[in-house]
Amino acid sequence: MVETKYIFVTGGVASSLGKGIIASSIGKLLQARGYNVTIQKFDPYINIDPGTLNPYEHGECYVTVDGHEADLDLGHYERFLGIETTKANNLTTGRIYKSVIDKERRGDYLGKTIQVIPHITDEIKRNVKLLGNSKYKFDFVITEIGGTVGDIESLPYLESIRQLKWELGRNALCVHLTYVPYLAAAGELKTKPTQHSVKELQSAGIQPDVIVLRAEHNLGESIRRKVAQFCNVNEQAVVQSIDAETIYEVPILMQEQGLDSIILEKVGLPVDKTPELGPWRKFLERRHAAQKKEAIHIALVGKYDLQDAYKSIREALSQAGTYNDRKVEVDFVNSEKLNAANVEQTLKGMAGVVIGPGFGERGIPGKFVAIEYTRTHDIPTFGICLGMQCMAIEFARDVLGYTDANSREMDEKTPHTVIDIMEEQKSITNMGGTMRLGAYECVLRKGSKACQAYGEEHICERHRHRYEFNNEYKEQYEAAGMKCVGINPESDLVEIVEIPTLRWFIGTQFHPEYSSTVLKPHPLFLSFVKAAIENEGNQGASQQVDKQQED
Ligand code: GLN
Hints:
alpha/beta, seven-stranded parallel sheet, 19 helices, binds glutamine, nine-stranded mixed sheet
């Protein structure tokens, strides 16, 4: 056990440079050297958490095991490091202020004027150290600061880092990520934006210890030397991060430039061992081979036409592709545009279809159309959360004969609410953080496809929903062929439905995608992609399932 070291990752020049990937890569490399590492993120916005944000604003909302609605970067942390994060790993300005204001109301600061410095900065510092002093005994706490240096919102965070660097001395360092643009007309790479952003950091009293330069082109030694010279950083501590084929290459690319050694040296730890990256490299090799093969196409039916909106699902599918030795191409299908006239043409070539999670009525009819098509054409289908609820509704309408079946979320008055509001949700009026959130146990029916996929009967998966399968209809579903094969042992809630007579037709009320990691892909995604690959041979030839036989 070493004294906890703190690494702050800041960003300059532009947003979306991949601070989360750099933080995760540093974490991975330190972990590969045997250290116990965690990563936390501070988001400088005023929402308490991203739970109430539209995915268009901030991408997917990730959920931790302890039920915190979190920034999607926590997904990267978990996928890279194979660790579980918690509420303590993601804070926002809103939460920091709320905590300070709550304390003020309680009288904790009685007599004092509450100010950004020291009260807000102290609260930020407290939350950084809280992880370091936690029972997990982390050797390294990596703290990523969202946003870009120079933003008004970032100032209290920078001031906190300045103070912590001063207090912690050698046990703290700052890694600053910037961007080096290439001006095609001049044929030149430009370091000026980096110089300016480092100056900005310095004017906040922070000298970066390491600079990571994001670039589309190889930077060469002279650029790195120039940055080192202008920014008071040793040349070895200026590394480049150029576009990689996959984000999972980044730790290796960083290691090749000695980023982990530089960090260890700076915090005074020995650089004697070599990092154990064997399994990681094996994954990359397997992925590389898989990517060379012809891709199978998986449709992702949803309403948010944005890469980041279904980040964890995309990653889980891609990982499952690698472990099935095939490239998976995810084709987004906008459910708002899907209808009976175009469904065949849209989904025909798909080896499998994922019906995505979501909220609200927009795009729902398209999801029903997709499900009816895949169910009656026996195309492997994976419904996640709202996707599972849509599977149940579509089945009720088409097979059970309740043409007005719906979820209470979409239709308050329907007599057939096969998806209903949870009892404990009825009295809740606040929107933020009030859903059924976090990991819950689930017991699987022996012999079911889901149970075969997991290879075990007891599982635990993460939830984020307000509505649930209505148990009053359970027997009718069972009798008609949609089986409720995953049940919460405490509440008796249905967590998984499947139609066993079909190739692969499973819906989960939980979000399995959140727990699929690079070295431990999720069993349901593995089995779904496997089924999709097997189905591929039947493309075009897939016959409409005889409805009589199915009913
Ligand atoms: N809107 C649905 C519910 O609240 C599903 C949520 C989801 O897909 N995450 O139950």
